[in-house]
Every structure is written in C-alpha cells, then in structure tokens.
Amino acid sequence: MSTARSGTAPGAVAARCLAIVGPTASGKSAAAMALADSLAPHRRVEIVSVDSAQVYRCMDIGTAKPSAAERARVPHHGIDLVDPTERYSAARFVRDATAAIAAIESRGALPLLVGGTMLYLKALVDGLAPMPEGNPAVRAVIDADAARDGWPALHARLATVDPGSAGRIAPGDSQRIQRALEVWQASGRTMTQWHAAADADAPRLRLAVLSLEPTDRAWLHARIDARFAAMLDAGLVDEVRGLRARGDLDASLPSMRAVGYRQAWAALDNGNLHDLHATGSVATRRLAKRQLTWLRSMPQRHVIACDAPGAVARVVEAATRMHDDG
Q1: Cα(170)–Cα(147) distance, rounded to whole angstroms?
Q2: Does the pLDDT at position 17 exceed 70?
C-alpha cells in the first residue's frame, strides 16, 4: 500500500487506512459504499467522514449526509457530532478521527476516510500546529471592517501579510479570511507560519489516497447543478427555515456559512428564492474548484477519472488492490 506518511510517534495511530477524496458531487459516497460492499466478505469496513458540514446535527439535506439505511449498512463516524451553534475545527477533527480510526482498527475493521474537506485530511496526515484559540474581540473588529469594506478588501489585506493563506482562500470565503486574519492579529504569526510548525507528534497514517477528479470540468458542473436542484426538491429551504426558527442561529456562524445553507439563508432574508438554484450552484462550483486545488497539492494520490465510464468499479478495483498489497 502506498503511504501518505510513514513511521510512528508517541501517541500516534499506526493505522492502515484507505481514503476516497474528491470535489463535491464527484461520486465519493457511492464509491465508498460500493467498496464496503465489495470488501464485506473479507473485511468489515467503517467509514470516517472527512466533511466539515456533516459534523452538524439538524443539517441533513444540504450536507448530503448518508441515509439511515446507508448508515445501517456501513457504520459511519464523524457525522452529527455538534450542534449548529458550535464551532468545529480541524484540530477537533484530528482528535475525533484519530479516536475513531483507533476504535475501528481495534475491531479488526478497515477505516475508510471519505470526504472533500482537504484541510481536515491534511491536518490528520501531516499534523496541525496548535493555533491560537478564537478571540471574540479581534473577530468583532474584523467583522466590523468587513461590514464597512467588504470581504474582498480584507482578502487583499490578508494577501499583504500572509500571501500563502491568501492564495489558498477565495476572496469571498469570509469564514477562512476571518480566521486567518484573527490568527495573525491575535498571535503576531501568520497561519502559514503556524502550519509550517506542525506538531512533530502528529498521527502517522499508512494511508492510500484515491482521488475522484473529472477530466471534463463541465461534467462536474452539470452534476453540481443537478444535485443542488435535487436538494431543493428534497426540502433544503424548509430545512433552513427550521434552523432559522430556532432563534439561536445567525448567518455569521460557521454552520450557516456552509455552501447551500449560506445561499438559502440569504435568499430567505431578501425574499428571493427564484435565484437560489443559480446562486447555490455557483457557490458549489467554487467550492469544487478549491477542493481540486487542494488535491493537486497531494502528489501521493491515485487519480481516477470520475467522469469516465465505470469509475466506481475502478475505485473498487484500485482500493481492493491497495488493501491486498498492504
């Protein structure tokens, strides 16, 4: 089995894992379920979600969570961990995923990491420096500046102090711009500098990475458009209405900034649901573009064309071979 990183360290998880990654709507979940079914006669598979939105409870439609039937068929971890009022971080993901992987291994099962939040996967594999805790006072100043000048202007500010982070963050990605500026202003060190000092005792994973990537971007865009339309048909707007009706959520929370939820919240604010399919699809396309940028920085990945005939079968074949080689 090829490895993302090898060796062991104190407290590390020396696990043999597979990962299926890729941009949103590339078919990761279907491939993961097919692989679990294929390996079932030989080895039990348990899935660890690598998705920053599926951690939130009461957010099911817009996060494309696996169904109850799928979860009954294959155990899933990393889903429905926190309330939408809470903040969830890459550091917490590393702790939760490390514990889940260790437990899965202890049962003799195969941990299968599945998702598209590449920051989380990178943190798990390469380690994550102990970033400063959130600073509400600093965050409030940043939010006030954004309200006055706009997030693209704050992105330009970030580019002057931390070009590395600015290059990875889209000008409209308010949550990540805010966090990068907050880290710099609160600590005097940029997020890029913090990442460069990643913890030497980070978990080491024997991890084979299968990446579903399109050869034709138009194919992925069509999939994204169709999937967002299906989410709307399934009741995404009503799901967001229910979240708004709770009274303890607002549009500034990380949970409500998730793609799809942010656009639905704004559409309900301005009373214009007619354009929601278009705005949600465009936002999802931008997310997919960022995910593909992350993936290109992972030379160890094994790429499978998700828009080629028989892509799922190719994932199953490659993953089975990697598992057997391990």
Answers
A1: 18
A2: yes
pLDDT band at 162 (very low <50, low <70, confident <90, very high): very high
**Residue 217 CB contacts under 8 Å (≥ 6 apart), including other chains:** none
Would you say residue 128 has pLDDT above 80? no
Please provide the distance, in angstroms rounded to a whole number, between the alpha carbons at the two ends of the chain: 4
What is the torsional sign of CA 133, 167, 4, 216? positive
Q: What's this model's pTM, rounded to 2 decimal places? A: 0.79
Residues 6 or more apart from 304 whose CB is under 8 A from it? 210, 211, 212, 213, 311, 314, 315, 318
* Residues β-bridged to residue 15: 205
**Integer Cα distance of 21 and 301 in angstroms:** 9
Q: Are 249 and 243 in contact (CB under 8 A)?
A: yes
Q: Name 176's Cβ contacts closer than 8 Å, sequence gap at least 6.
A: 165, 169
Strands 205-213 and 302-305: parallel
